């Protein structure tokens, strides 16, 4: 269920995607609400978007509007509302980025739901790559994200195995990579959900706005993600370097964790390493045990 | 709160308003859901809209798409979703009809909420008329509606005082007339909510589909409403004839009713007549009492 208010705010965003400056009164007519109502809806939106509201006008800063960047070789499709960006991407050619301001049925890893909020970055990058590059994506994408977050945004981001991005042990981003074969190549759907300026719905999550205390222009993050994904085939030529960087960012190493497996069983131990397939090596009471990401429903850092 | 499913169905309708024939698979990509999901969403919509789904295509019959009629002198604005058609009409010139497939904050008489469902006819007709015609609208509009429903649609519709339309004592349509002065003229916002092919949300309401057992092409009803409203100034020249026809359709006459007044008090009596201002004359234990529509929160037929 979605609050009426959110649906009206998504209607406002739809109009602001079409045109980033409006007379507030006209925007109210467009969505069918009175002026004080549209003012209060916009006021609340301005806590999560770079909106400037003054003298009866509203202006959405292009630095926060994903469709305003034009990365070479890519098409950006920007929608206010979608079922999921992963499913929407099916209808577009490779090298398309789908951005949704809100997903009704956002997807997480292994069939989990990904909850979106206004002001986050909810994207799917559709790419066509060689099988080697494709096989590296689950390691490459979180590595790229942490690199950007540390070096360009200046926050202390880490990877939580297998491919969540965390700050202060709270979830900042989730990644979902889906793939299908196309002749000799692989078409991959790289879904990234990054809490940028949204209010995360759960205590165990955090947004960049929470960390930095102000709204971040989303295009800074988005254009860097697209730039690095464009270089994925190049990066995948040196898999050992990528795996090394991944391990460097891995918060999970040498910590006590509890893994809840798909069959419901639980395994507790200290994370001692990652093998060449990306499986986590746990030191348990019963000796060393390897667990695979696809069989792991949830991993908790318990120390 | 609105179910996710309804929001996705409204997204589908939005695309079908833009173009009335689609390949189902492409429609799924547009809203970001998998093919079986879009099929099931459309299947359910086809119970309330004239949708034909076959060979992977969906076709919305123009007889059910309000923007497909072109009444002379009028502009039709057709939206999938609005706060309310009454508020949306403010931004348009007179002789505009706003049609919404769903209203988030639909308005009823005296601040009540009007609940919309998919497949109904939720409209506001904005007109500019002389003050005499404007003053007649609260009587004229329900009269016109009942006339259309009886003579053209063939159902046994009645007026429930002051201006609901009922069948079998169940609510079929609600009317809300708002007005503002413009120089010597009056700009009136005639809101009509008519349960056509929707499933009314309460037991005390009924739709034309319920009565007739099949989907009604909404444009038949809509074009007749617009046609008669165009003739409102002409009709208002003979106010006695209109009041006479209104009385003829008035189910409330000679029935025992209970009126709940705005101040919370209740008045019970037998409805004996309507005065020249449209007030209801009740025969009560304490003699004849006149009640005014603007002071009446709710009227119940109790016999």
How would you concisely characterize the structure shown here?
Chain A is of the alpha+beta class. In chain A, 32% of the residues lie in helices and 30% in strands. Chain A starts with a helix and ends with a strand.
User: Radius of gyration of chain A in whole Å, from Cα?
Assistant: 20 Å
The largest sheet of chain A is: 7 strands, mixed
Q: How large is the count of helical segments of chain A?
A: 9
Strand order of the largest sheet of chain A: 4-5-6-10-9-8-7
What is the residue-averaged pLDDT of chain A? 94
Structure explained in plain terms:
2 copies of one chain form a homodimer. With 303 residues, the first copy, chain A, is an alpha+beta fold. In chain A, the strands form 3 sheets. Chain A has a 7-stranded mixed beta sheet with strand order 4-5-6-10-9-8-7. In chain A, strands 14-13-12-11-15 form a 5-stranded antiparallel beta sheet, with no helix packed on it. Chain A has a 3-stranded antiparallel beta sheet with strand order 1-3-2. Chain A starts with a helix and ends with a strand.
For this entry, give a set of tags:
homodimer, 303 residues, alpha+beta, Arc Repressor Mutant, subunit A, BirA Bifunctional Protein, domain 2, SH3 type barrels, 3 domains, 7-stranded mixed sheet, 5-stranded antiparallel sheet, 9 helices, 32% helix, globular
Secondary structure topology:
The structure is a homodimer of 303-residue chains.
Chain A: H1 4-18, E1 21-23, H2 24-31, H3 35-45, E2 51-54, E3 57-60, E4 75-79, H4 85-89, E5 96-100, E6 121-129, H5 131-153, E7 158-160, E8 164-167, E9 170-182, E10 185-194, H6 208-212, H7 218-230, H8 232-236, H9 239-249, E11 256-261, E12 266-274, E13 280-284, E14 287-291, E15 296-301
Parallel strand pairs in A: 4-5
Antiparallel strand pairs in A: 1-3, 2-3, 5-6, 6-10, 7-8, 8-9, 9-10, 11-12, 11-15, 12-13, 13-14
Helix pairs in contact in A: 2-3, 5-7, 5-9
């Amino acid at each position: 269920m979605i609050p009426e208010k959110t649906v009206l705010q998504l209607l406002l965003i739809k109009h602001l995607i079409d045109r980033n400056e409006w007379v507030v009164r006209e925007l109210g007519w467009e969505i069918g609400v009175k002026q004080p109502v549209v003012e209060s809806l916009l006021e609340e939106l301005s806590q999560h978007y770079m909106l400037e509201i003054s003298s009866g006008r509203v202006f959405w800063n292009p630095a926060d509007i994903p469709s305003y960047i034009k990365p070479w070789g890519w098409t950006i499709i920007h929608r206010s509302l979608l079922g999921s960006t992963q499913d929407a991407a099916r209808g577009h050619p490779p090298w398309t980025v789908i951005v949704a301001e809100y997903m009704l049925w956002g997807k997480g890893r292994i069939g989990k739901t990904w909850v979106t909020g206004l002001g986050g970055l909810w994207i799917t990058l559709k790419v066509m790559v060689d099988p080697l590059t494709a096989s590296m994506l689950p390691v490459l994408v979180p590595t790229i994200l942490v690199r950007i977050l540390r070096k360009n945004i200046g926050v202390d981001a880490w990877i939580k195995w297998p491919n969540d991005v965390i700050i202060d042990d709270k979830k900042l981003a989730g990644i979902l990579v889906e793939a299908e074969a196309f002749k000799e190549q692989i078409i991959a759907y790289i879904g990234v959900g990054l809490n940028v300026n949204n209010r995360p719905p759960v205590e165990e999550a955090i947004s960049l706005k929470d960390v930095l205390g102000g709204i971040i222009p989303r295009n800074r993050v988005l254009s860097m993600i697209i730039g690095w994904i464009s270089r994925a085939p190049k990066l995948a030529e040196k898999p050992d370097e990528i795996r090394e960087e991944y391990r460097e960012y891995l918060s999970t190493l040498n910590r006590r964790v509890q893994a809840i497996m798909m069959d419901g069983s639980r395994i507790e131990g200290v994370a001692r390493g990652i093998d060449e397939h990306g499986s986590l090596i746990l030191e348990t009471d019963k000796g060393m045990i390897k667990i695979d990401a696809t069989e792991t429903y949830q991993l908790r850092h318990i120390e």
